[in-house]
Amino acid sequence: MERGEKLYEGKAKIIYATDDPDKNILYFKDDATAFNGAKKGSILDKGVINNKVSAKLFQMLAEKGIESHFIEMLSDREMLAKKVDIMLVEVVVRNYIAGSLAKRMGRSEGEKLPETIVEYYYKDDALNDPMINRDHILVFNIATAEQIDTARATALKVNQVLSAYLLERDILLVDFKLEFGNYHGQMLLADEICPDTCRLWDRHTLEKLDKDRFRRELGNVEEAYLEVCRRVCGDL
Ligand code: TMP
Questions:
Q1: Which of 2, 40, 106, 206 keeps 20 to 30 A from 186, CA to CA?
Q2: Residue 78 sits in which domain range?
Q3: Is 177 close to ligand 1, i.e. is its CB under 6 Å away?
């Protein structure tokens, strides 16, 4: 499958058309940004790792009955995916208090939540991706009730399957962000699932093994991404 016209360049990926109108190629870059692009940098081989980790996790989820846009890995940095129309809602699932939830609620990081929390964010860089609720999504026609309810149910299922998969590899799934897209009327899991989009802590030491190492200048960023790749993609 050959790369066609460049359709879109985001902060971490470039999307290319292919000769099949139903398929795109995602090219994973090493560029890293945080705080809506205010902090810029690069993480050596991040693109290779995020492609590989995402491919492995999408395959694993498919085996558990959760479909995604993933078709196959084409190269180190390229993934072939179904061409979806991305829903402008980011779905965040939280199992432990961390990040913006800790800030918003004035709580310290690391406490296990008694129940899983699902949050929605409006995908709009100019507005800094504000948090919204289901009513906003419906009233402002960002998605239909069926679309957001399907996305929420899928996100909760992903949380169950992924938490268990990662725990077997000594990783706590603290929280994560998912994106969904419409593919001929079907809401499919899309984008990527990797250390950029999840908070992943070592089960025993609680060491951060994700993009917070970059966001918070904690050092050993590349080592953390490699460690996640080794645990997720390596055999048990
Ligand atoms: P938050 O605590 O900063 O709201 O982040 C929640 C989760 O979402 C965390 O796992 C990181 C992920 N995330 C993204 O993937 N992209 C983003 O732009 C942000 C802000 C968070």
A1: 2
A2: 6-82
A3: yes
Would you say the CB of residue 128 lies under 6 angstroms from ligand 1? no
* Residue with CA at minimum distance from ligand 1 atom 7: 176
The response to whether residue 92 sits with its C-beta less than 6 Å from ligand 1 reads yes
pLDDT confidence tier of residue 235, bands split at 50, 70 and 90: low
How confident is the model over 86-144, as pLDDT tens digits? 999 999 999 999 999 999 999 999 999 999 999 999 999 999 999 999 999 999 999 99
Q: Is 184 exposed, middle or buried (0-12, 13-18, 19+ CB in 10 A)?
A: exposed
Report the number of distinct structural domains present in the chain.
2
Token duo for residue 190: 């899309």
CATH code of the domain containing 77:
3.30.200.20
Length of the chain counted residue by residue: 236
- Tokens 């109108």 belong to 21
Residue 12 Cβ < 6 Å to ligand 1: no
Atom 20 of ligand 1, residue of closest alpha carbon: 35
Mean pLDDT of 189-208: 98
Same domain, 117 and 158: yes
The rounded Å distance from CA 99 to ligand 1 centre is 8
